[in-house]
Structures are given as C-alpha cells and as structure tokens.
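queue> pop job 88
queue> type: inverse folding (structure -> sequence)
queue> payload:
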C-alpha cells in the first residue's frame, strides 16, 4: 500500500510540474490531457486487481513442470556421474532429484551408488558434494 501511495503522489507531483513548465497552447492542452489520463490510470490501479486483469496463473496451465523436472533430473544425474568419474575415477549411479518450487527448479536430494570396491570413497564423495552445495546427500556402496 505504501508503494502505491508513493507512486500515486509521485505521478500527481510530476503532472503538476509538467503542467507548469509547458507553455500555453495546443501542446499544453495535449500534455495536460495525457498527464491527467496517467494520473487516472495510476489511481484506478487497485481496482484492476479486483477483476484479476492480467492473471498470471494461466501460464502454469500451458507448462508441464513434471516433464521438465524429469528431463532436468535425468540430465543432472548423468552429468554428476560424469563429474564423479572424472574426479574420483569411480563408476557411479547417481539420482539427482529436481523439483519445481517457489518459481524455480531446485535440487531436493542426491543419491550416489558406488561400485563394491568404491566403499573407501564414500566420505570423500560426500564431502565433495557438500562443497558443491548439494543437500540431502546419500552416498552408499552397492552390494552384489
């Protein structure tokens, strides 16, 4: 509400200043009309919210977030497998769970399964993933 009042006061103040600076004539009448129109639009802005003009919820109907989550999860999982192979020389199976929350895609959890002989790398990989700011990390050695 405070922002709205400051905006309205600013537009009205600007309108008065412009009206004083423009010389009399046809231009003055046109500029005065335009400035009054702008003031009127600013003043009725809260009323447009009642009728939900420009509703942004309709965009979510046309966007399949679950599909994008799946694609993003698969891609992040493959890339993490490549990164761990390069850094530690270990073949891994990674699952990076990506979810859409609060208007953005976020990694919710990470699971890394090491081959049987990779058990000694569990703590190193866990620490490495923490440095990369992953959350809810699970690293384990697969049993055969």
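queue> result:
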């Amino acid at each position: 509400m405070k922002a709205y009042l400051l905006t309205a006061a600013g537009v009205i103040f600007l309108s008065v200043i412009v009206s004083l600076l423009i010389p009399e004539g046809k231009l003055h009448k046109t500029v005065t009309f335009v400035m009054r129109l702008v003031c009127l639009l600013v003043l009725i802005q809260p009323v447009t919210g009642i009728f939900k003009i420009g509703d942004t919820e309709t965009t979510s109907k046309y966007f399949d977030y679950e599909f994008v989550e799946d694609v993003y999860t698969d891609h992040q999982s493959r890339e993490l497998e490549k990164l761990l192979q390069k850094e530690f020389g270990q073949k891994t199976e990674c699952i990076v769970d990506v979810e859409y929350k609060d208007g953005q895609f976020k990694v919710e959890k990470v699971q890394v399964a090491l081959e049987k002989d990779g058990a000694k790398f569990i703590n190193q990989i866990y620490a490495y993933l923490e440095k990369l700011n992953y959350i809810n990390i699970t690293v384990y050695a697969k049993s055969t």
